Amino acid sequence: MTTRDNISRKLLNPFKGDKAIWFIFLLLAIISLISVFSSIGYSAALSGKSPEQVFVRHLIFVVLTFVVVILLSNFNYRRFSGISWLGYLLSLGLLVAVLVIGHKSNDAGSGMSRWLQLPLVGRFQPSELAKIVIVVYLARLLTQEKNNLKEWTTFRNILIPVLILVALVVSENLSTALIIFFICFAMIRIAPINVNHWRLTILGLVVLGALALLIGDKMNIPFLARSGTWSSRIDNWLNFNEDELSQESMARMAVASGKLFGVGIGSTIQARLMTQANNDLIYSIIIEETGMVGGLVVFLLYLYLYVRCIKIAIKCKGDFGRMTVVGLGTLIFLQAAIHMSVSVGALPVTGQTLPLISSGGTAYLCMGLALGIIQSVAYDVNLSESKKAPKADANHNNTMPSESNEEKQEQTKEEAKI
After folding, report:
1. Which residues 6+ apart lie within 8 Å of 187 measured at CB?
2. pTM (predicted TM-score)
3. pLDDT by residue (tens digit) across 369-378?
4. How far apart are CA 164 and CA 170, in angstroms?
5. Which of 138, 219, 287, 306 could disulfide-link to 333, CB 3.0 to 4.6 Å?
6. Are 306 and 333 in contact (CB under 8 A)?
């Protein structure tokens, strides 16, 4: 087949990677558009815009996310390793900027800053980008130092960038900081790390966290200003007051109203009273409208997406690709599980959106970045598998190395550089 034919085939089939993941993404996007349109009314009214305006903005971000995933799936994922350090530095700069000039997390002005107001983009939450960047950067570090991971010095040098990022995020969003740390823990844990290093690190962080909560509750330290909010959320969850009309109680009422098959799409009642119905608690609205059946379908979509990521990681020959897919797949599934647990009352309020469903603009787009990188690795795996048969035929006939063999040699060189 000529080079021109190869280019034509690529242009005719832009959806590279795992077909099952593309199908799941499409279903989640459809669910997102329906659910957001159903639940956007009250939130739009508070922002002074019409529901149609807010919905069109969300639709634009959904379309942009599809474009991003398509572009990234055609990109050589190994090149992400080389630029990951730049993304890490950019994330640190944005997180520092949000602490200095960021916007408050609510209209009352209480709490730490979470947002940056960017031209054309609007509100941007740097911690959403940081979740993606740290996974790719950590995958790079683990791959580069894979032969020295049992040494304490190597473990320390890998852990320090993670802790710096987590420290900058924790003041604005504890749940995001915990998600980042857990994902990094999972990635490092599956690498050949000395278990004793982890035990000492976890013990030290638990002690530091307890001291931070105690000091933050007693003293007015800006960096720990939200410690009271964290404590109150846990207390409200443990001592839930059914008579209080709060976001949590309305979410639980929405879940209870849904029963088995729901009240019908577009017939939500609780969303007309909730300020976070279209983002932080959208799963409760999905259950209200489609019942436990619809809620189970959404959960199974995320679970199957995670299973596909694990399969891609198993088939991937390079350590960097394997670590990246495991980390990003865990990120998407873990955040979805936390959001769903909060919506049904199984966890305290965290403020985590439902990936690829909740409205949120840049948060939706950042999850598209994660999905695009996963698809890039999946595409490379598919190419490697499709070249096995031609390679076997070439070896059998004792002919000169084929183009696929040359490409594989080039791929091995790139992996060696990583």
Report:
1. 135, 138, 139, 142, 323, 326, 327, 330
2. 0.86
3. 999 999 999 9
4. 10
5. 306
6. yes
